[in-house]
Protein: CRAL-TRIO domain-containing protein
Amino acid sequence: MQLSVDEITRALRIKASILCDSRLKEESDFVCVQYALAAHAEDSLEEICHRIYLLQCARSEYQILDTVEQGVQLAHQYTLQHPGMWLDVSYMAATKNYCKIQDLAAFRPSEQIKTDEHRRIFLLGNYYMWNCLLPDFQAIREGWTYLSECDGVGSELLDPIATEIIMHHLWQGYPKNIKEMFFYNSPTVINIFWSLCKKFMPKHKERCIHLDCNPEALSGIRLDALYKTPTKEEARVKLIQTIGNQLQLRRQNEEKFSLEGVGVAQILGLNHPHLSMP
Structure:
């Protein structure tokens, strides 16, 4: 993809700010660019560093290792703890981003999140899923898309513990963009849920939320029926393999990317409006 000089400059400033902040551990150049691409124009370096601090605290508290192996293990544990919730991860060629398809009716926090280990699996599973959806700079810039089946969702979706785990420990700190979120057959409870979540979202992102989607092509069909094939277990295993491949792709991109070269190119005053990145 192409990174603009402004994006590179911001990433370099974020990297320098991290090194100057005694609270923060060093981040990879890839992650510095991720924060630069996910930040809004009005965000200060102090605000960005605070988000980095929040996420680093979560990594420390929940022992997030940022490895492909741990990510695959957590995907396996998550899909067993929340069976049928994650359906697929797909690449959207037209928009060059990734989409997660899920069945929210399969999420039952009062039954599935009872212990500290359940909480850890829930949090780390989502963390690695987000990494899976953002394996490269193009995907990070575009942001992820969610397709959610909501038929059968009840009031327990508003579980305060599950909401607090994600919103406090991950959502505020993780560098992300949201392209669009579609909710199929959404009941009133989904509207209430998003009214609570909006306070954590930038105003300009609220228009990305599409409630009560009912396309004619899916009339009378739940989304999960399209993905639990040939069997639920085979679909689950295939999904874990996809997540592993995505995490490996992100790891490869992270390991081979360096701001050092592009920073020097910028300082030397190359006249290209954009610089190519892997």
Remarks:
- The beta strands are 2-4, 86-92, 97-103, 144-149, 178-184, 209-213, 274-276.
- Residues 66-256 form a domain with the Phosphatidylinositol Transfer Protein Sec14p fold (CATH 3.40.525.10).
- Residues 232-256 form the longest helix (25 residues).
